Amino acid sequence: MPEPLLPPIPPYTKQHLPTERVTIPMVFPVINPTRWRSSYNEDWGSHRHTGCDLIAPKLSPVVAPFAGVLGFKPQTFWIVREDGWGCLGTHLNDDTPGTNDNKAHLDFMFAPNLVPGERVREGQLIGYVGDSGDADGPHLHFELHGPEGMRDPAPSLKVARRLRAPLPLLPPEPNRLEGCVRRFAAKTRRLTVLPLTEPRYKTLVLSETALAQLGGEAGLAALERSRVVSLTVEKQRVERATLVPAGARSATESGQPLVRLSGSSLSPDATLTRCATAELAQFTKLSSPRWIRTGSMALGPLRMRGTKLKQAAILGLSGAPASLFSQEVVQEALRYSGFTRFGGAVGSGRIILILADG
Ligand SMILES: [Zn+2]
């Protein structure tokens, strides 16, 4: 199980909040037309406002502004990056669609595939705009937290990249639907799924082939609620189905080998490059106090699944420029560690370089 991640706690105070300006590259966290103004640090009587309120129609999709480790509880989510920057959003939807009942199932508050403590990708669906808690109307209250405390999210929001829709897990294809299974009636082979794109259950009939591809009735019964299935649908009938691997990356984030280094006097090792590509998808944070951290990079042991090599790795943390990983840096790392082989991959704003013995 991933470790639980505690939410950043905004100060409830009449004192001024920190006003140092920062711009964190991000995707705008709400899809759909949004009205907002800079209201961080405004005096609201009993306290100062700790974020910006992004006003949007109820049930507008909320997406991860950047990649990081996710935590959530009813109404609220938070995402923390490896470098200590994080965000928090609240007032997610708690109404059954079409009502104002404050009693919605969590399926209408959060994306169905979220697991607390797991890594989310930039642009991934997190949940839906609502008016839960003490909100006057539907909006996302959005906060930015840094390693040294809160900051105004407005400068980052002003230049944030706008998406037209949450990013899918797999490259989009016509007639393909990604969702999580909610019910299966074996007699009629009717499958109820919650798509990753909208808070509305869909009922489809599984073909024999698709049912077998999902492991039959037993496979469906054992399926975790957060596990994503990819369904190819023709006329309300699922013709083909696959289980999306847990931790699948979005199409825009797949790892790229460090090609710049091939052809130089140093040639990357294919096995280690494959390991590095896999690590990009799974690595969430510096897992050991034995890591040495310098600026935007860290050096330390990296335990990897399925290998028995004694290894060290240099990890480019989020925001590290790719130019850091020149031939000179690789040479330096090999010299420093005493290892002779290396492989690496770039993606998701990170660079992983793995070093190993011959
Ligand atoms: Zn607010």
From TrEMBL:
InterPro entries: Cell_wall_metabolism_enzyme, Dup_hybrid_motif, M23ase_b-sheet_dom
Keywords, comma-separated and alphabetical: Hydrolase
Superkingdom assignment: Bacteria
A GO molecular-function descriptor: metalloendopeptidase activity
Domain M23ase beta-sheet core, residue spans: 48-146
Full protein name: Murein DD-endopeptidase MepM/ murein hydrolase activator NlpD
UniProt organism field: Armatimonas rosea
